[in-house]
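Incident log, support desk, overnight shift.

02:14 A customer reports that sequence design results differ from what the structure should imply. Their input is reproduced verbatim below. On-call engineer (initials T.W.) acknowledged and began investigating.
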């Protein structure tokens, strides 16, 4: 799957829904678990690493967050072995429109995500 594929917007919405539900529960999700949950919903061409997952997670962060000020929803997606997001997540956080400060940490971002969705 690619961003240009007609089913990409539906896959994006599915990913947002999956991550919001996990955030409400205050639980992280691995890249593999997210890939498996998307596959269970019919989006079976999104492998857990690289490729479309990278773009999907960026677009998840931008979903209804064009100015980048809201918590980055994909902060709860982590590597199974390390328990941390990929290095690409930190790069994204420091880029526009997110522009997180030098003292920013992904753990703080993850806690902001959990707090936001518990309140909804």
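02:41 Re-run completed on a clean worker. Output:
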């Amino acid at each position: 799957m690619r961003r240009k594929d007609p089913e990409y917007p539906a896959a994006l919405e599915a990913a947002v829904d999956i991550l919001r539900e996990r955030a409400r529960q205050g639980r992280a999700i691995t890249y593999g678990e997210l890939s498996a949950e998307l596959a269970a919903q019919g989006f079976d061409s999104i492998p857990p690493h690289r490729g479309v997952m990278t773009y999907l997670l960026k677009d998840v962060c931008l979903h209804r967050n064009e100015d980048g000020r809201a918590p980055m929803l994909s902060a709860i997606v982590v590597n199974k072995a390390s328990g941390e997001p990929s290095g690409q997540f930190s790069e994204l956080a420091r880029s526009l429109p997110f522009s997180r400060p030098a003292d920013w940490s992904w753990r703080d971002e993850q806690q902001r995500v959990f707090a936001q969705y518990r309140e909804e």
